[in-house]
Amino acid sequence: MDQKTCSRSDACAQGHDCQQTCINNGSSYNCKCEVGYVLNSDQKTCSQEMRGEITQDACMCEAQILFQKKVQSTIQELSRKLDELSDKVTLIEGEQQY
């Protein structure tokens, strides 16, 4: 400011658009996320880290697969019944027009 001495500029102090933490990098800055978060592709915002839990228990995996198959089967059965009901309603509506 005195036009005689030099000082390193603080890019973060001058304003930044980092969602969490701003790190000075020379005349510019980089954004960083807190533990448990990852930096998004825009290099500014953070998202909570998704950690996939791997189940070591084979019985648990088998049980989940069996449950998913039962749910899928039930959904298909309900869908079939809904189609049948829809056909019956269409038939009844057609008979009422005559």
TrEMBL record:
Coiled coil: 68-95
Keyword Coiled coil: yes
Tree of life domain: Eukaryota
Principal localisation: secreted
Keywords, sorted A to Z: Coiled coil, Disulfide bond, Secreted
MF term (GO), any: calcium ion binding
Domain EGF-like: 31-46
GO CC list: extracellular region
UniProt-listed InterPro entries: EGF, EGF-like_Ca-bd_dom, Matrilin_CC_sf, Matrilin_CC_trimer
Subcellular location: Secreted
Name of this protein: EGF-like domain-containing protein
Organism, as annotated: Champsocephalus gunnari
